[in-house]
Amino acid sequence: MTSTAHAGKATQRRVAFATVIGTTVEWYDFFIYATAAGLVFSQLFFEPAGQEIALLISFASVGLSFLFRPLGAFLAGHYGDKIGRRAMLVLTLALMGASTTLIGVLPTFETAGLWAPIMLLLLRILQGISAGGEWGGAVLMAVEHAPENGRGRAGSYPQVGVPLGMLLASGTMALMTGVISPGEQFLEWGWRIPFLVSIVLIAVGYFVRRSVDESPVFEEINEQKAQTAVPILVLFKKHWPLVIIAALVFAGNNAAGYMTTGGFFQAYTTDPKGPVGLERTDVLVAVSFGAAVWLIITLVAGFLADKIGRKRTYQLGFIILAASLFPVFALVNSGSLVLLYVAFGVFSIGLGLTYGPQAALYSELFPASVRFSGVSISYAIGAIVGGAFAPTIAQALVQATGGTTAVAVYLLIVVAIAFTAVSMIRDRSGIDLSFRNQAEQEVGALVFDKRRADAVKATQDA
Question: pTM value?
Answer without folding.
Answer: 0.83
